[in-house]
Design a protein that fits this description.
alpha/beta, Rossmann fold, UDP-galactose 4-epimerase, domain 1, 2 domains, 7-stranded parallel β-sheet, two-stranded parallel sheet, 9 strands, 45% helix, NAD(P)H dehydrogenase (quinone) activity, oxidoreductase
Length: 288
């Protein structure tokens, strides 16, 4: 069985390839699809087959998916154009005769008002329309959204947001990658939808308290109106559109849209999800 992972040079895709190797999948049975093959030279050195796979260039997708049995379609990062990009990939997968399309979606994509959800909902509909067996991995928030940005929090003594007392079921990318690898190598996942989130949801106030505890510095959560939070993100260098998406996502978090309590993630990976304390420790270690 040949398994392909798109976006293999990205943070999630690379972890999925590593997780497949950890599960004993022979390197030669894994195809790492990426816009920039040179970015995954380390995977190629392990024997993984590297192929160019650019969502904007369908001709690369046709060759990338040739001979593939199961495909993990990692959602693109370019908000606003993803449906067209994903459709290119889905069409190429159908033409290639792929037997299972696994797609990384968003929590409750078909019913939520989460700002990022519409493109995921539309992509799910495209995949369903093909008649090819699918699995939707509706990934919750990556904890690295917070723990990769601890330097400014420590410098200013504050984590900013508009989430109020809402809880987020965040988990590390490695946990979500392990779930994807489990689906790609397992059976019984055809036409299943998994809502994935960490076992221990937390508020941003609790996140700040954990950062304070481990760092020895006082860090507080500062709740802002969404417009003010978006302006702060723009001031920190984020594009206006992305800042608005993040602020809107915090509003959704406050209203419970990022709380996932299905237990699907821990069941798929066969263990509890990584605790917040471990993720904060990892984030702080990256600063030293």
């Amino acid at each position: 069985m040949i398994v392909a992972v798109t976006g293999a040079s990205g943070q999630l895709g690379r972890l999925v390839v590593r997780s497949l190797l950890d599960r004993g999948v022979p390197a030669g049975d894994i195809v790492a699809g990426t816009r920039g093959p040179e970015k995954v030279a380390d995977l190629a050195a392990l024997g993984v087959r590297v192929r160019e796979a650019d969502y904007d260039r369908p001709q690369t997708l046709a060759s990338a998916f040739a001979g593939i049995d199961r495909l993990l379609l990692v959602s693109g990062s370019e908000v606003g154009v993803r449906v067209a990009q994903h459709t290119n990939a889905v069409n190429a997968a159908v033409t290639a005769g792929v037997s299972l399309i696994v797609y990384t979606s968003a929590p409750y994509a078909d019913t939520t008002d989460l700002p990022i959800a519409p493109e995921h909902k539309a992509t799910e509909e495209v995949i369903r329309g093909t008649g090819v067996p699918f699995t939707f991995l509706r990934n919750g928030w990556y904890v690295e959204n917070y723990t990769d940005n601890l330097a400014p929090a420590l410098a200013h003594g504050a984590i900013l947001g508009s989430a109020g007392d809402g809880k987020v079921s965040a988990a590390p990318r490695a946990d979500f990658a392990a779930a994807a690898a489990a689906v790609l190598t397992g059976e019984g996942h055809d036409n299943k939808v998994y809502e994935l989130g960490g076992d221990q949801p937390f508020t941003l106030t609790e996140l700040a308290a954990e950062v304070s505890r481990q760092s020895g510095r006082e860090v507080a959560y500062r709740d802002l109106p969404p417009a003010e939070y978006a302006r702060a993100l723009v001031g920190a260098g984020l594009p206006e559109r992305y800042a608005q998406v993040l602020a809107g996502s915090d509003v959704a978090l406050r209203e419970g849209r990022l709380l996932v309590e299905t237990g699907d993630l821990s069941r798929l990976i066969g263990r509890p999800t990584t605790p917040l304390a471990d993720s904060v420790a990892a984030g702080l270690s990256r600063l030293s």
